[in-house]
Design a protein that fits this description.
21-stranded parallel beta sheet; Rossmann fold; alpha/beta; about 725 residues
Length: about 725
Amino acid sequence: GVCDGHSRSLNSIPSGLTAGVKSLDLSNNEITYVGNRDLQRCVNLKTLRLRANEIHTVEEDSFFHLRSLEYLDLSYNCLPNLSSSWFRSLYVLKFLNLLGNLYKTLGETSLFSHLLNLRTLKVGNSNSFTEIREKDFAGLTFLEELEISAQNLQVYVPKSLTSIQNISHLVLHLKQPVLLLDILVDIVSSLDYLELRDTDLHTFHFSEASISEMNTSIKKLVFRNVQFTDESFVEVVKLFNYVSGILEVEFDDCTHDGIGDFRTLALDRIRYLGNVETLTIRKLHIPQFFLFYDLSSIYSLTGRVRRVTIENSKVFLVPCLLSQHLKSLEYLDLSENLMSEETLKNSACENAWPFLQTLVLRQNRLKSLEKTGELLLTLKSLTNLDISKNNFLSMPETCQWPGRMKQLNLSSTRIHSLTQCLPQTLEILDVSSNNLDSFSLLLPQLKELYISRNKLKTLPDASFLPVLSILRISRNIINTFSKEQLDSFQQLKTLDAGGNSFICSCDFLAFAQRQQALARVLADWPDDYRCDSPSHVRGQRVQDARLSLSECHRAAVVSAVCCALFLLLLLTGVLCHRLHGLWYMKMMWAWLQAKRKPRKAPRRDICYDAFVSYSERDSYWVENLMVQELEHFNPPFKLCLHKRDFVPGKWIIDNIIDSIEKSHKTIFVLSENFVKSEWCKYELDFSHFRLFDENNDAAILILLEPIDKKAIPQRFCKLRKIMNT
C-alpha cells in the first residue's frame, strides 16, 4: 500500500491509483495541478505528501473522497489562496502542513472548522503572509503542535488564538517582536511550550500591564536563532519573572549583540529568573566577546536555577563567585567548550556548586585525569561525572575523587589501560571507544559497564564485577563466549556483545542456538551477532549458521575413518589370500628383478642345458635316475641342481632366477610333493613369467606320478595349457 514517487520529475499526479494505495509520496516533483479525479479512487489513502512541487491550483473536491486521510503535506508549493472546501470531508485528518505557499491570509472563511481530530498544524510563509485574523483558527480546540511562519506579520487581531483552548507546542517565526506581546497575551493561559524562531529582539520591550500574572501555563520557552542586546535581554528576564509558570528556558544558536553591561539597567528590582529551574544555552555567539563584562551584575539571578547546560559556546571559565552563587545547581553541562585544568581550578573553588550532583565536561581541553579528580574534591555532592572526549591518553595508578562518585564517563579519551585510579564506589562506568585490550579491575559496586569499541578478546572476569547487571561490550574483537562465562555473572540482565568477530565453532553455535533464555539477555539478538569464520558461514547470523557433521564431530569422524581403513585393509588381505594377491606381488618383484637385467642372457652366459625343479622328497628319483640318465647320455646334458650348483651365501631367490636364466630349459618334476613345496611353486612362478615375458617354450613338464590337473593353481594358465598337451 506504499507508493513512493518522490523526486521523479513528475508534472502531474500519476493515473491508475487505486484503493490499495494507503501512503502516497509525490514530494519534490514538478506537479502544478491537482484535479477532482486525480485521487478519487484512493479511498483508503492515509498519508499524502505533495511537498515541494509547483502546485498553484487545487480543485474544490480534489480531496473529497479521501475520508481516511490522516496526514496531508502541501508545503512549499505556489498556492495563492486556501479553500475550506479542500478539507470539509477530512474528518480524521491529524497532520496538516501548509507552510511556504504564496497566500497572504488563511482565507475568507474558517479553514479548519471541520478538522476535529487535527493535532499538528503548520501555516504561513516567510514573505507574503501578513495577517492573522480572529476566524483563522475557529473550530480548533486542541493542538499538540502549531507552527506559524509570519516573518512579515503586520496585523494580529486580538484573540485570534484564544479559540484554541490548549496548545502543547507553539512555534512562532517572527522577524520583529512588535506583535509578540499581543500573541503572548492570547496564549499565555493555554500554551505549554513556546518556541520563538528567527527573531530580532533589539526593540523588544516588556510591558507588565500587558500580561496578567495569574493563569499562566507556559512551562518552557525556547529562543532559536534569536538576536539580543543587553537591553532586550533584561526585558526577557522581566518576562521570566512575570510569566511565573516558566520552568525551562533554552537559547539555541542565538546572538548577543552587547557587552554584558547590565549594571545601568533595571536589574536591581529582579531578584531571580522567575521560577526558571532549567537553563540551556547552545552555540551562543557574542561578536564583542573581547569587550564582554564579567556578568557579576547578574550573579544574584541564578540562585534558584537547578540545571544549567552551556554547550559549544567557547566557555573557558566559570568564575568562582558565580559558582558560589549557584547554590541550587544540581546539574551542570559545559560540553564542547574550552575548559582546562587551570580554569577548572577557579570554577570548582571552595563552596562552589554546593549541591551539584552531575557535572558534564565532555570534549573540553582536559589532559590530566589525576589533576581533574583532585580539583573536583571540593564538590562534596558530586555523584555523576562525564569527562569523555578529552585527551587523557593514560591513567595514573592512583587518583583522588569526590567521596560519593557513582557514575563516571571516560569514553573516547584514548586511554589504553585501566588502573586503581578509578573510584571503588562506582556503579556505572563508561570506557567505550578507547584502546583497552583487557579488563581486570575489581569494582565491587559496579552495576553497569559500557566498554564497547575497544580491543577486548574475551568477556571480563566475573569475579571482578560481582553485582554487574548490564554489560555492553559490542564492537570489540571477541570471538566467542560460553554458558559458563555468562552463568558466572550471577546478576547479569543485559549483555550487548554484537558487532564482534565471532568464530562460529560447534560448541559456540550449540550454546547460542539452544539457549532460549539467551535472547532475553542479549541486546540486538539475533541481527547484530554474525559469524566471521569459518569462511563459508561468514556474514551469517549466529542463529542461522549451520556446520557440517565432519566439522562438529571431528574425533568421531577420524575414528570412523580409521575403522573403515582397518576394515579395508582386512578385506584387502582376505581378497589377496583368496585371489592370490601374494602371487601377483611376487610376480611383480620377479618382473622388476628381471627388468634390471638384459632381456635375454647372451649365449656365452648360458651354462646349463636345463634347470631341474623338484621337491626334496622326490630327490631320489631325480638324482639317481633322471640326472644319471641325462648327464651320461651321449652327448651328455649339463643339468643345474640346487643342491650342487647354487652359489653359497647368495639369496636363494637370486640363485633361482640366475639358474633359470642361465639354462636353456627348465624341467619340472611334477608330483604331489612338488605342489606342496613353496620353493617349487616360486620356481614355477618365475618360469611361468618367462613363458609370458619371452614367449618361449622353456618349460618341460615331467609327471612323476599322476596328479589332478586342478592341483596346478588357476593362475598358471600357460602351464595348465601345456599339461593339456
